Amino acid sequence: MSNAPDPQLAAFRRSIDNIDAALIHMLAERFRITQAVGAYKAKTDLPPADPDREAKQIARLRALAEQAQLDPEFSEKFLRFIIEEVIRHHEQARG
């Protein structure tokens, strides 16, 4: 077995690293916006959670996941995790 790096594997990993960096930046931007929403909701006395919007978003993103050939169950778990964190921030903003 050779210790030389596999150039194809290295190229795949560079692409994965680039995608991971983009995901982090996109999540950071998303949370900057949702924090502004949380501040607005606190100022206007709106509830931290919006179950109707959340259900619509989950359905929309499940459909997008299917179109993208991504497991819709995984995409829903991922989105629910994000939504829970956003609601937690909104509750803190009310605090």
From TrEMBL:
* Enzyme class per UniProt: isomerase
Domain named Chorismate mutase is located at 3-94
Q: What EC number(s) does this enzyme carry?
A: 5.4.99.5
Q: Which InterPro entries match?
A: Chorismate_II_sf, Chorismate_mutase-related, CM_bact, CM_dom_sf, CM_II_prokaryot
| PROSITE patterns linked | CHORISMATE_MUT_2
Any Pfam family matching the protein: CM_2
Q: Could you list this entry's UniProt keywords, alphabetically sorted.
A: Isomerase
Cite the GO molecular-function annotations of the record: chorismate mutase activity
The lineage's top-level taxon is: Bacteria
This chain belongs to the protein called chorismate mutase
Q: Which organism is it from?
A: Parerythrobacter lacustris
